[in-house]
What we know:
Bound molecules: nicotinamide-adenine-dinucleotide
CATH superfamily of the largest domain: Aldehyde Dehydrogenase, Chain A, domain 1
Number of helices: 16
Radius of gyration: 25 Å
CATH architecture of the largest domain: 3-Layer(aba) Sandwich
CATH class of the largest domain: Alpha Beta
Distance between the termini: 70 Å
CATH topology of the largest domain: Aldehyde Dehydrogenase, Chain A, domain 1
Strand order of the largest sheet: 15-16-17-14-13-18-19
Low-confidence stretches: none
Largest sheet: 7 strands, mixed
Mean pLDDT: 95
Amino acid sequence: xxxxxxxxxxxxxxxxxxxxxxxxxxxxxxxxxxxxxxxxxxxxxxxxxxxxxxxxxxxxxxxxxxxxxxxxxxxxxxxxxxxxxxxxxxxxxxxxxxxxxxxxxxxxxxxxxxxxxxxxxxxxxxxxxxxxxxxxxxxxxxxxxxxxxxxxxxxxxxxxxxxxxxxxxxxxxxxxxxxxxxxxxxxxxxxxxxxxxxxxxxxxxxxxxxxxxxxxxxxxxxxxxxxxxxxxxxxxxxxxxxxxxxxxxxxxxxxxxxxxxxxxxxxxxxxxxxxxxxxxxxxxxxxxxxxxxxxxxxxxxxxxxxxxxxxxxxxxxxxxxxxxxxxxxxxxxxxxxxxxxxxxxxxxxxxxxxxxxxxxxxxxxxxxxxxxxxxxxxxxxxxxxxxxxxxxxxxxxxxxxxxxxxxxxxxxxxxxxxxxxxxxxxxxxxxxxxxxxxxxxxxxxxxxxxxxxxxxxxxxxxxxxxxxxxxxxxxxxxxxxxxxxxxxxxxxxxxxxxxxxxxxxxxxxx
Length: 510
Ligand code: NAD
């Protein structure tokens, strides 16, 4: 086993009401190190009793504490302090994240700076927030009274976990909500860093709370808790459906960021080398454990054979190795359960399509969750490896002839998160982008994104879009206040002599 980074405690406890706690039941679970699958930390295994306490602390802070009542500028000042604290631990976080999740160290670097940027961004937005007012001269003025929604339940996945958590924590806290975070059970270790960060930044007790544990126990209890007004969930489609159903009984406000099976469409007039570089990175970065991975590559038949050959040649040269080695490009998958899932899809793929390269464990890495970069070609649209999210270093390449066929193939899946279009024809780029059923499309590029833009999927990739002011809207109530400026025209029920014109049901707009 690689050397454990400094600062990882032997045991991880829940944190709520400003204090650390063991599970009420005393339960713990093991966290595994992905290059050996040996346990190296135990984390408190929360269930309903722990969620009840954490939500109670968050509700108390929301109902009675200063956080929701602070001026936006005051909250923003603390968010900036959180950002500074996060940025300070950039190297420590990279080491922890890489060790805990198997992310190659080179790709783990910079995660803290990105997370810090999320806090600075939402701090700026909340200060600049403007709400609308609508005036009907002489009659009525209406304005929007923005209020934080309440206790926010935040449920996050294990891929780039710290960054994912920051994407929810920052807008929730900026909006004035108090939060209960339930991080993924495979990767609780970096989440534990938030406790010190929040304390050092001066976040009042009860505003930030965290409960570790499994989805079926801790996650489920958070979704079903009547005092958790909203749930912001990122994870798989299957779990998303369960969360959706379970949220119904309490009319939860829900944001669901789910999986993807995103197409990259490469036309024969594209910049071949740039498309090649980008689709290799799009599939194999972050170990392929990336929600926006371009895991289906659709290539125009005129360049198909050349592309498949060039893609496979490069994929074979990708360096698979330990997460801590700076030359590693693909490291160990997060957990043996996930390794089993990915390798079982590779076996399915061998029955369904042409295996071009990869297809199993690299021979020089006999232990740990290592998978070769795996390329399947000639993948039919009804193949499971074309339809289902694998979430590992596995790609399906499929040829097409016409623009219409490319669009049809791109849309022929349950998901609709991201898409990538490669062509030098400007009109075609825009037309194809517009015809693809996905929340986000990148033209001749990948995954670089302005935080102000909408982020989210359509179809099975999720409900609701976050990003920019959309995130603040999700964590807020926009209450409409109507004030009469002139005489109140009330239909005088029980009095005599009112006309049809006095019915007062609505009225003209300004
Ligand atoms: P998952 O659905 O298994 O788990 C996600 C979280 O939900 C975990 O914290 C888990 O404990 C919790 N959970 C599980 N069952 C639950 C239940 N019944 N009630 C409440 N919570 C429950 O997903 P994962 O394997 O951790 O993450 C990978 C998935 O996340 C992939 O599908 C990936 O595409 C998706 N993802 C999406 C985005 C996005 O922005 N759209 C970003 C990252 C990851």
